[in-house]
Amino acid sequence: DIQMTQSPSFVSASVGDRLTITCRASQDISTWLAWYQQKPGKAPKLLIYAASSLQSGVPSRFSGSGSGTHFTLTISSLQPEDFATYYCQQASSFLLTFGGGTRVDIK
Amino acid sequence: QVQLQESGPGLVKPSETLSLTCTVSGGSISNSIYYWGWIRQSPGKGLEWIGSIYFSGNTIYSPSLKSRVTISVDTSKNQFSLSLSSVTAADTAVYYCARPRNSTAWPAPNWFDAWGQGVLVTVSS
Question: How many CB pairs under 8 A join A and B?
Fold first, then answer.
């Protein structure tokens, strides 16, 4: 299996902050990476696919970058509705795996 | 706009088989580009992919669950189903069905943009 490791697992931030979350793959996955946002009691929402492509309807303050084994999700200016948990997921292999998640709380 | 809806018992006894169905509306499960997926999330934990199925019946399973999982498809009902045998308390989770984002590629890359609302299944006697 391809292991996905996110960091940090928890971050406390303020509205307006710039936030970067990191995801590392245990082997080269090219740009076969997606990012999701999940709020309590809700299904995950696709934000970014193919490492850097913004899903339709997602605000442009979200951006993704990286390739190979190192990826980042950046929120340029945190908004109140962005406080949630974020997951990365690799789709390089048919055996899909998710990162452990990064919970973003209000400072 | 495709919609997915999970259904099935919310309570399963230990050692028994968990069975869930995902009903797809607003689109055909026979769309030939998608592998339809099952994902679960234990309380307070992260997301775990269980497996995926193509409309022809071709399946892919998570190695950690492969010995206990069966995913099947019923194209006539526009549904796909999950069976997980010999369940324990560790299988207590919210179970989601999901469909990958549309793509010109075949098969569509497995990043999911359509999800069911999820169903909580508790394993307890």
Answer: 57
